[in-house]
């Protein structure tokens, strides 16, 4: 008997990791639902996918509207097996502009929780499914450069741990993906980065992690050891090292 085709929705699929995941899942035979701010970009991506796809504009800055639109997308697809929440914003914010801090909290924390809430309620009705949240290694420590970004990623990490506890007696999986440095627009202009991987390589690692059903997936995997060390640094030593890094990273480059 032929197995039913798997279906996945990716929230935040117009660029970067989300875009690469859409291409990967479509190539693996998934029907893919694309959700993001720009319907134009989503429709352009649809034309590149080898398999069936759906697209809908979903803006996490308005969490209630995003909940409604995600529900509509799932209804349009009739059912889904996998929801990947990838949407996020990063503003380097040394001046601590409140509008940028608010954007990061609203999208990365509140918007993420709204999408996860839809997924939990939907999958509980079906008694199966998989929720994947793309957090970050940045969620392990604070950052004076962008306090709200790291804090919002810490929120995601803890929220997903809570969901795993809540759903531990059900077949529903919650997978926390913690990428390191991925070559996307978020990192443009940054110096001193190491171990940078392409969105396509990140998507391959994430797909393998989903297949294995691991609760926490570092991308690449060696970040687990790096963050084990960083989490154990005394706060004073961590702040000293981070201040020195910021001073070097923001120093104007000399021209000959």
How is this structure best described in words?
By secondary structure, this protein is α/β, with parallel strands linked by helices. It has one domain (7-249): Rossmann fold, CATH 3.40.50.720. Helices cover 48% and strands 14% of the residues. It has eight helices and seven strands; from the N terminus they run βαβαβαβαβαβαβαα. It has helices spanning 16-27, 39-46, 63-77, 98-126, 147-166, 199-212, 223-231, 235-249, and strands at 7-11, 31-36, 53-57, 82-85, 130-134, 173-179, 216-219. A seven-stranded parallel beta sheet has the order 3-2-1-4-5-6-7, sandwiched between helices. Helix 1 packs across helix 6, helix 3 packs parallel to helix 4 and helix 4 (98-126) packs parallel to helix 5 (147-166). The termini are far apart.
Q: What would the keywords be for this entry?
A:
single chain, 256 residues, alpha/beta, Rossmann fold, seven-stranded parallel β-sheet, 7 strands, 48% helix, globular
Shape: globular
Strand content: 5-15%
Low-confidence stretches: none
Find the structural class using helix and strand composition. alpha/beta
| β-strand number | 7
Using the coordinates shown, work out and report the CATH topology.
Answer: Rossmann fold
CATH superfamily label: NAD(P)-binding Rossmann-like Domain
Overall mean pLDDT? 92
